[in-house]
Amino acid sequence: MILEVDKLQIDYQAKDGVTRAVDGASFVVPEGRIVGLVGESGCGKTTAVRAIMGVLAENGRRAGGRIVFKGQEVDAATTKRLLWRDIAYVPQSAMSSLDPVYTVGAQIVEVLTKRGNANRRDARKRAAELFDLVGLNERRLADYPHQFSGGMRQRAAIAMALALSPSLLLADEPVTALDVIVQRQILDMLRDLQERLHLSMVLVTHDISVVAYLCDEVVVMYAGQVIESGPVREVLARPRHPYTMGLRNAFPDLMTDAMELVPIGGSPPDLRDAPPGCRFAPRCPFVLETCTTGADGHSLANGHMSACRRDGEADLLRKEALDPVTWQRSSSFAAS
Ligand SMILES: Nc1ncnc2c1ncn2[C@@H]1O[C@H](COP(=O)(O)OP(=O)(O)OP(=O)(O)O)[C@@H](O)[C@H]1O
Ligand SMILES: [Mg+2]
Fold first, then answer.
1. Got the DSSP string for 58-87?
2. Which helix (H) or strand (E) holds 28?
3. Which residue from 111, 123, 315, 329 has the fewest beta carbons nearer than 10 Å?
């Protein structure tokens, strides 16, 4: 494993209380694999990857858990050393990793000279190589970020992240604002980079069809917790947590029988006041009393983890989850 995240807890302090944005999340990134971190808006994906990078917001802090990179535990001090050289990060908005007042080339050269101790000549040569690697013409190094299209900006941000040849790349929603054709180009490029550079990758997305297209492993987050994880094919073919079953119905590419898209009713809980037991229970069409009272339900088989308390009945629930009527139940709960 190149990265192990164990029972990570991240708190944000605010005037009106503490938000535990990540609450006991555990997952691993096997060497040379692409892991998709997926879940609805606000479930803690960005917080988790920023915590791994040691670049949390001012009011954020690690309240518990361990992060182990290549066998060594990392804390805030060590991540500074690992930053860019070993672990690199492409932030959620590529625009925020690029400075509007400098050319893109100047920014990449800056990373290479300041952090990588390269001389300017080597840095310029390397910048051209990096642009070539991500499919950009090196002439564009002289352009400012606003002269780039969204897809090109995303490529430039990835080139910058790869400047010091990291072994782990964390990419936060790299294709979200792009049209499907450009999405596919960027995802294909990421796969190509992963193979050529033997990278390991965490790809953050809210779109489970992006995970299906690119990732080897998937980690599904809900309300700050990991509720299901495992090999992509296995998890998407046989999801065992109702939230994953619902996510699969809510996105287009994976539908086998050309059914309509079925949204999951309701919305995730307020993290300052999370419900007891399973956090998905208020929206779950299969909720039982034990879901909100009984003990935690983590079960693991062949690398496939599910936190559903009704895991023993997963095969049956999965069949019912294919019926859109099942999800009307969940929206009526959410409304009541
Ligand atoms: N600096 C902050 N201060 C207080 N709360 C925060 C801060 N940053 C994030 N949060 C809260 O933490 C939770 C998780 O946010 P996070 O950005 O990690 O979610 P996300 O899964 O990346 O969402 P999205 O898909 O919208 O990017 C949310 O409830 C959010 O409101
Ligand atoms: Mg985010």
1. TTEEEEEEEEEETTEE--HHHHHHHBTTTE
2. strand 17-29
3. 315
173 Cα nearest atom in ligand 1: 27
End-to-end CA distance of the chain: 44
Q: Could you give the dihedral angle defined by the CA atoms of residues 307, 309, 314 and 317, in that order, rounded to the nearest 10 degrees?
A: -120
3-class DSSP state for residue 221?
strand
Model confidence pLDDT, tens digit, residues 306-329:
999 999 999 999 999 988 899 887
Q: Is the Cβ–Cβ distance between 269 and 282 less than 8 Å?
A: yes
**Does the pTM exceed 0.90?**
yes
Cβ–Cβ under 8 Å, residues 67 and 2: no
The partner residues of 35 in beta bridges, in order of sequence, read 202, 217
Q: Which of 214, 134, 206, 204 is nearest to 169 (CA)?
A: 204
Copy the structure tokens of residue 11: 């708190």
Residue to mutate, 5, 9, 11, 19, ligand 1, most ligand atoms under 8 Å from C-beta = 19
Residue nearest to ligand 1 atom 7, measured at CA: 12
Alpha helix stretches (DSSP H) within the chain? 45-53, 76-82, 104-110, 120-133, 150-161, 180-197, 208-214, 232-237, 242-250, 289-293, 314-321, 324-335
**Predicted local confidence at residue 294, as pLDDT:** 65
